[in-house]
Protein 1
Amino acid sequence: MKRSLLVEGQGGPLAAVVVAANVPDVQVLGATLDAVVIPRPDPEQDEQHLCLDKGYDSDDGWGEALEHGYAPHIAQVHDSRPVPPQRRHPPKRWVVERTLAWLSKCRAILIRYDKRPENYFGLIQLACALLWFRRLDVLR
């Protein structure tokens, strides 16, 4: 089972998708970007950046990010698409990894006891809501 997360800059989860483990990350990108649970600001007024790792460096990954109105910052496998140095933002993958570690503190998510994917996805959504609730005191 693979979890695909979209998080904001501080690590708060905005979208989650659960798929089989043998599905490549780039194929889940569109579903993850569509699963955002809060309304997004207009991409034409506020530029929104999307940092991704090397698994998304393909025409499909770049296309999905641009189609959803994000400014993509994807770590490149090869320097086939040189990025201008003044606009280069290195991907910050550790923010997502930290959020996945927070989610793994919930035992039912770390060790998957549920056989049905709908139940497992519901637990992930509950854990994401719990993360936001715990951060509520910090955000005030």
Protein 2
Amino acid sequence: MKAAKTSGKTAGKAHGAGIGPVIMKDILTAQRNEITEHHIYERLSRSAGNAQNRKVLKKISGDELRHSLFWKSYSKTDMKPDAFKMWKYYLISKILGITFGLKLMERGEGNAQKAYDKMSKAIPEVKKIEKDENGHENELLRMIDEERLKYVGSIVLGLNDALVELTGALAGFTFALQNSGLVSMAGLITGIAASLSMGASEYLSTKSEGLVEGGGKKPGRAAIYTTATYILTVMMLVAPFLLLTNIFVSLAAMLVIVVAVIFVFTFYISVAKELDFRRRFAEMVAISMGVAGASFVIGLLVRMFLNIQI
């Protein structure tokens, strides 16, 4: 009888008894996060066109539901999903890509790791949940097949070249021409010609890679991604010279746009590809601004030595 009573106490402690209010609050938070993520993955799996992606998302959705039920065995409470978070990450995933949306969601849960460490002292089984979250789910996310990430090299090529080349060209034109209309015209001609040239180079490069390695990318599609990214960047950088009258204010606005574009794109790639954001961002800004500064000086020298007045 005594043994039975002790066993009952142990079971009670294992499922909520003896757990303090602070730990219980963390349990409820974890439970809500898991049930919310279950619904996000479930909803994305239903709308996924790719059978492989559907299978992966369904598997992670089931894991999240299982984790939620684990926490419920301690909380003894039904938790509703966070509707705002659910729609937020669902829409981000649909607009910017499943891989980016879901990795951004997982990345935003750094505080959960501290809570897990705290809870594992009272509930040893938490270590297995933590292991699932950090290892198994990340492995499954890497299995998602997404076209935009397959062609990310082509996008990076178009963006990097446009930023570096056109930032330099526009800075040089600013001092050489000192006329917003002329700078924007020269920038558009230079940028569009360069984008077509870059697209053609990417087509030939991807085709060669496919012949040598068997490739997985289509040359035409790779060229379109490179060209489209380049032209879009050209339009953004030339816009200040079309909209503003003061040539040097236009140049300053263009440089702000350069930094903003680098920030947004580097953040996207660092999340989707799990890369170091700060180092890549600093490197790209330094290169773009360095080229712009050098071109600015070259434009000034060309104007001085050729003694051209416009």
Protein 3
Amino acid sequence: MNEFSEIIERLKDIISSEMGERKVYDKDVAEVLGISPATFATMKKRGSIPFREIMEYCARNRISINWLFFDQPAEMLVEETGKFFRIRYFSQLRASAGGGADVFDEEFEYLKMDASILENIIEYVDVDSIDAIHVTGESMEPTLEDGSIVLVDRSRRDISKDGIFVVSSGNGLFIKRVRFRVDGMIELISDNKIYSPEIVSPSDLRVLGRVVGNITRI
């Protein structure tokens, strides 16, 4: 990491460009960081970097913190960051491939995934619409194992097309294949043939999204 003096000199270059290329002094740096000149002088003497103030300044001015502290080019950071995606992961939610289950709640964490893995297991990547949830039960085996994690694209709810969907009914949350019947009812179909299809009314069913990927476990 760059030393105090190197970081301050970089800040002075940035501030100078904002002030018409005039000479920038320590008091100018202290002012833009919201630190009193006396406090800044003490920090400089001790080599104590004002991390919080610098990060806030960088955030306001869209300056790369990694460039300022570690000399890492912004282009490299964009390239590396693009290798990963953050998916909302409802770790406490269990979508049933067997019996009933809880409904979606608002508690989630982020699951970081390698983009190369995602490209291999989903048809396209729209991170904002994809959530990750657990599978409970064995009715969708061998396609989806009990305890595995599925990626659900909540923007895709057209059940007229083939696929596996996460649906909600009065009995809870389910992962099933969905098929319209000629009588207007809907079949929830399991891949495990020992489970019989469940017949439900369209008015009793809410489609939450299509399963577009499967992670065995994490």
